Inverse folding.
């Protein structure tokens, strides 16, 4: 879902010249343009979430519960909206495809490394722990893991005196076992999506296109 959001980079850069023309001629306010772009991206995120959830969920062998499946799908939807907002923000700040691609690649690398899957949170160096809390993927990982391993399917399998298999799996990867953290993770992802779009709006309002024009001339 993060890599699919990366497709927003060239799309946003292509639209910037026309946007600057409309803005400078006072056709509309930048936040109106962003709201329209957000509304148009919702069906795209819905389709992405449905397709990936149908392909991944039952193929992996996750809990065959409709409620858990739709919660998993909802996380995918929010992650995709967050990713679109992230790369849209990089576009609005960089205003150049080369710079935006560089920032985008670096952002994906950092978010994935600190997301809690490739490197469990407990194995991240102490001086990088604060950065792991800033990674949006950290909260997506927690939401998906809690959604799966707190089900009755995993709770009923237990070791004597050592808790259930689900709790042991979560603890082994440095993840919590409280079910409310699913909604906390979703809430943080929504917050990031809103934050990134607010930064995009501010960038479109206050940053001019001189850098963009200069780079085109070079």
């Amino acid at each position: 879902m993060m890599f699919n959001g990366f497709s927003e980079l060239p799309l946003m850069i292509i639209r910037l010249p026309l946007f600057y023309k409309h803005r400078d001629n006072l056709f509309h306010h930048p936040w109106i343009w962003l709201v329209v772009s957000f509304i148009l991206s919702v069906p795209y995120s819905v389709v992405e979430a449905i397709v990936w959830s149908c392909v991944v969920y039952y193929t992996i062998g996750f809990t065959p519960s409709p409620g858990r499946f739709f919660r998993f799908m909802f996380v995918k939807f929010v992650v995709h909206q967050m990713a679109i907002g992230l790369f849209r923000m990089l576009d609005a700040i960089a205003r150049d495809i080369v710079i935006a691609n560089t920032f985008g690649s670096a952002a994906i690398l950092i978010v994935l490394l600190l997301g809690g899957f490739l490197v469990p949170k407990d194995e991240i160096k102490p001086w990088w722990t604060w950065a792991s809390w800033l990674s949006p993927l950290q909260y997506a990982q927690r939401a998906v893991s809690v959604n799966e391993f707190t089900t009755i399917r995993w709770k009923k399998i237990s070791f004597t005196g050592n808790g259930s298999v689900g709790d042991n799996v979560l603890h082994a990867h440095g993840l919590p076992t409280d079910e409310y953290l699913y909604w906390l993770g979703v809430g943080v992802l929504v917050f990031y999506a809103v934050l990134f779009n607010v930064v995009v709006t501010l960038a479109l309002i206050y940053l001019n296109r001189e850098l963009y024009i200069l780079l085109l001339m070079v």
Summary: Residues 107 and 122 are 22 Å apart (CA to CA). The chain has a mean pLDDT of 82. The longest strand covers residues 158-159. Strands lie at 158-159, 163-164.
